[in-house]
Structure formats: structure tokens, C-alpha cells
Amino acid sequence: MSPRHLTTRHPVARKQHQCWECTRPIEPGTVYRVDVTAYEGRTYSIKAHVECADAGMTLASDMDLQQAFDEGRDSLIEEITASGEPLTAFDLPDVVRRRLEDAIAEGEARDQARRAEALARIRAAKEAAA
What we know:
By secondary structure, this protein is an alpha+beta fold. The chain has four helices and five strands, in the order βββββαααα. The chain has helices at 50-61, 65-71, 76-83, 94-129, and strands spanning 4-9, 17-18, 25-26, 32-39, 42-49. It has a three-stranded antiparallel beta sheet. It has a two-stranded antiparallel sheet with strand order 2-3. Strand 2 (17-18) and strand 3 form a beta hairpin.
């Protein structure tokens, strides 16, 4: 059974949400997009910046639509990262490109911190064993 789109709304955020497409915060007072979908008896709400949702839909329109419905579409940041292409290879609005650049840099910094933490634990374990 394929996901079924139920409704799309454009509310004003009363609290902070996370954008499905770029993973950056949707700040209070911002108009954002909510797509409500039903799948296997459950409903899902996908929240995104309006510009990010538009960019994600543009990217999805380049995919085989049946494949997109059957397999589900990844978020914009996942699709772009998986492509291996630089952000400049995609025709994105400046605001979306900046959000994605920030999210990618934040993810790389987080990964680097995790690696450093793991190395420190390994060194500490080796010193304790010696």
C-alpha cells in the first residue's frame, strides 16, 4: 500500500519545529508547510520551511514518481548528500542552500566531535589496561 496524501496546510509556527527537508529549526512566527499523509493505518505530519518543501518537491519531480511513492522520498538533505554532488550542482533558492550548508557543516562538526570522543575513550581504555 502506498502512502496517501490527505492535506497540506500553511500555518504560522507557535513553537519551534524541525524542518524535514533541511533539518534546521522552523522558528516561531514563520509560515511553514505541513503535509499530512496516511500510511498503513497511521497518519504522519511532515513539517518543512515553505522554500525547502518547494525545493524538495522540485527534486522529487525529477525522480520516477511511482518509485517515489513506492519507496518514499528521502528528505532534501538526504537526497543531496546521497547524490555525492556539491550543493552548487542543484538549482536551489539561496535561503535553502544556506540552510543546507549550515546543516551539513553542523553534521560534520558533530561527527568530528564524536570521533574525537571515541578516540579519547580508546586511549583511556588502553592506558587503563597498561
